[in-house]
Amino acid sequence: MITSLSIENFALIEKLNIDFSTGFSIITGETGAGKSILLGALGLVLGKRADLTSLKNKEEKCIVEANFALGKYDLQAFFEANDLDYEEETIIRREILPSGKSRAFVNDSPVNLQQLQDLSFYLIDVHSQHQTLELSEEEYQFKIIDAIADNQVLRNDYSSILKQYREAKSSLEAKKTSLSAILKEKDYNEFLFNELHSANLKVGELEELEKSYEALNNVEFIKENLSTLLALANEDEFGLLKNLKEFKSVLQKNASFSIEYESLFERTNSVLIELDDIVKELNRESELVFNDPEKLELLNQKLQLIYGLLKKHQVQTVEELIDIQNDLERKVVSVVSLEEEIIKLENSLKNFEVQLDTIAAKISQSRSEAIPNLSSKLIETLNLLGMPNVRFKIEITPTSNYHSNGKDGLQFLFSANKGTDFGLLKKVASGGEMSRIMLAVKSILSQYSKLPTIIFDEIDTGVSGEIANKMGEIMRGMSQTMQVFAITHLPQIAAKGNTHYKVFKTVLGENTVSELKLLTNDERIIEIAEMLSGKDISDSALNHAKALLN
Question: Where are the coiled-coil regions (predicted)?
């Protein structure tokens, strides 16, 4: 339950600190006094988004802080799952900075808005006019039935498997799409792959082939140059080797006279050895160089093949061709791999469907068993609320689809009067009837839920008199097991509360501010008398107010 609320710099509220008690609390105030502002501030600590328009003073930050007593509600698991410190007296704080940034904390640990929203699900149910409209929606109607049927564990199991089922189904569809696309190009891809594979491409091959081709294509020129080089080296009279040997012989005569001559002699000897080795190598090369038209043609064919492939695939290097070949190989091989994966996924889907069908059948069965109980409780409560002839016809129908909450379809039919046909709730129920039905639903759910707090925001719309009195009694009955707040304009409901708070505006200089105060017994009599007769309170209104309170 919420034990206190502190608000600073929010809308028309400069600073507000208020404590709350257990039981049934009433909040009243004139239209525009700030009741919606109070709910808006509370919405911030429950994870709703905010912007700079929420700040009263744009230069200062807005802070909303709420204290919750959680000792009775088994929320330790939630705190552990979200890596938060659990405290029986938990503090949730929300800050909106002048820059527009928002921060949230649970027991001083930073949290994101999603975590705050998830936690708020276990703390407070704020009933608004919008939620009354939800009553006509199938998803909300299922929630009501499932709460009575105690289907939460089954629904959690179903949701977990359904998530896996949908992921597997999505994966299956993606793989089938991929397979279909690959199969369309399968023959062409296989042709391209075989063409590249048969080319037996190697990294760096093109450069080597081009060099070999150039050498073989210029064999006569090379041979002629080699002959000239060998002649220059080996000529009997003027050959390089003969002259260098003679040069060495003469230099050797001076070698004994100084270290410098000896060094020059050794260097000359090294040159002679190197030149002799070069000449021998040239002799070997000369013997290897010969005209080979067949090899030249083969080299030319391989080069033309590679040039053709480069042009065909619009790339510049053999390495890129090899990458394309590898990619084509993966595509060709992936057909078999994808087919195997598709078979596995199809088998998984069948297994998931068996599990989902089994759980959905249990959910459907428990719903069918809970519906008579729900109908009788609704009728009993609505009879108290001035609807003596109300009837419900709630029909569960099996479907073949896997919905988020099972495989059932639902018709929530309603008749308010004798002699009238059943119709869909959203089509035949008036606004006042919807408010009373929603209160009956909340009253029933409070017997099955561990929710600490519920806030009714003007659920009394469209009702008055004795019906309002009965609505107040029902809400007071709910407060025996949970904390209940009612924001109301009706004195009959206001008089039922254990505590009564008033929202009002005051003008301070040039500023208008909203405030909230806990009324004393005398102040409460005056407030209810004003609700009965307006600002000019009559004695009869005061007496009526006292009678309502008593």
Answer: 335-362
Closest CA to 263 of 274, 272, 252: 252
- Between 502 and 219, the more confident residue is 502
Q: Predicted confidence band at 485 (pLDDT cuts at 50, 70, 90)?
A: very high
Greatest mean pLDDT among 256-265, 301-310, 426-435, 472-481 lies in 472-481
Q: CB neighbours (10 Å) of residue 182?
A: 15
Same domain, residue pair 164 and 41:
no
Residue 393 lies in a domain: no
Separation of alpha carbons 318 and 321, rounded Å: 5
| Residue 284 identity (one-letter amino acid) | R
> What SS3 state is found at 20?
coil
List own/partner pairs for 466-469 with CB under 8 A and 24 or more apart: 466/386, 466/492, 467/385, 467/386, 467/436, 468/492, 468/493, 469/493, 469/496
Same domain, 73 and 209: no
Are 492 and 548 within 8 A, CB to CB?
Answer: yes
Cα-based distances in Å from 409 to 21, 250, 367: 42, 117, 11
**Lowest mean pLDDT segment, chosen from 55-69, 136-150, 282-296, 498-512:** 282-296
What is the C-alpha separation between 393 and 413, in angstroms, rounded?
5
* Average pLDDT estimate for 149-162: 93
Q: What is residue 306's predicted lDDT score, i.e. its pLDDT?
A: 80
pLDDT in tens, 473-482: 999 999 998 9
In a domain, 241, yes or no: yes
**Does the structure show a pLDDT above 70 at 291?**
no
Q: Are residues 76 and 158 in the same domain?
A: no
Count of domains forming the chain? 2
CA distance 476 to 498: 8
Residues 120 and 169 in one domain: no
In this structure, are 107 and 27 located in the same domain?
Answer: yes
Q: Are 396 and 371 in contact (CB under 8 A)?
A: yes
Q: Are 2 and 123 in contact (CB under 8 A)?
A: yes
Does the residue 329 lie in any domain?
A: yes
**Quick check: is 399 in a domain?**
no
